[in-house]
Structures are given as C-alpha cells and as structure tokens.
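ok posting inputs for the shikimate-3-phosphate job
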Amino acid sequence: MNHIILIGFMGAGKTTIGKRLAAEMEVPFVDTDELIEAQAQMKIRDIFSEYGEDYFRDLETLTLRQLLDLDERMVIAVGGGLPVRRENQTYLGKLGTVVYLTAEASTLEMRLEGSTTRPVLKQGDLRAQILRLMKARGTIYEHVAQIKVQTDQKNYHQIVEEIKQYV
Ligand code: S3P
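and the output
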C-alpha cells in the first residue's frame, strides 16, 4: 500500500506533524492511539491500568491489521511502542512508506515534561525513562523506517516540507 506512516519516540511529533502533513496532502489522517481509544471507549492510561500493557499491545496489532484493509491513501501516526513487535514491523512494511521522526533526548524531555497520558513514562525520572526506551527502540525504528527526519530545532512547517520531498 501507499500510506505514509510516522513512527518514533513519544514526543517526536508524530500526531501533530501527521495532522498537518495529511491536511496539506488532502488525505485522511489516522492515529493508532486514537483508534484504540475510540474502539475500546477507554483512555490508554486506563487500558494499561485495568488490563495491562500486553493487552494494549494486542490492540495495537489488531488496529494495524484493520488498517491493512483500507485502500485510500492516508497518513498514519502510530504509538511509540508499536514498531517493537516483530509482527507489527511486517504490517508497517506492507502499509507503505515508514518515516521515522527523530529527536534528541533533551528535546523529548522538554516536550514530554508534565505529560500525564503516557503510562510507560509513569515511573521514576523522566530523563532516565526516555534514555532507557530510546536505547531499546532506536535501532528498531532505524530498521523499520525508509526515511529519517530529524525534528530538533525545526518548526512544523519545515518538518512537513521535508517529509513531502520524500513521499
Ligand atoms: C507508547 C506511546 C504512546 C501510546 C502509549 C505507549 C509507548 O503513543 O501508544 O502510551 O510505548 O511509547 P505516542 O508515541 O503517540 O505518545
């Protein structure tokens, strides 16, 4: 398929950039977190606390499978942990062009400060959590993506224009 899929760490700007990119390209925008919340009729933090992370990860995989059935070209933002599962990596490849939005840990820390909606960052020091997850996920993002766009010190317009050059 020919979709554009945005992956990357929490706070990389996947949803914000995705919405703007989709608007400029005049295609629909979907966000896997929003789809999951709408289908489950629950907030992600409540899904985590009531059913656990594994259950949430199953919902992510299910959502990706549903997206494989849609033909109309879209911009798709996926949750930061979604590319970690092997099975999801295969689906991402089938969905279209995968764009990895990168940012330095210090930038992510600034953007994520005060966020209460992300259960994986709940425990302990924010900087340490970011570094731990970046270490675990960085190479996976690199491996899954065809295009890498660095977002530090760029405004949304610049980032959207950069992605448009590739897709
Ligand atoms: C997660 C990222 C979140 C959301 C969930 C878990 C993660 O999405 O899917 O809280 O494991 O990195 P964003 O990357 O859109 O914040």
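notes: Residues 10, 14-15, 33, 44, 79-81, 118-120 surround shikimate-3-phosphate (CB under 6 Å). Strands lie at 3-8, 29-31, 75-77, 96-102, 147-150.
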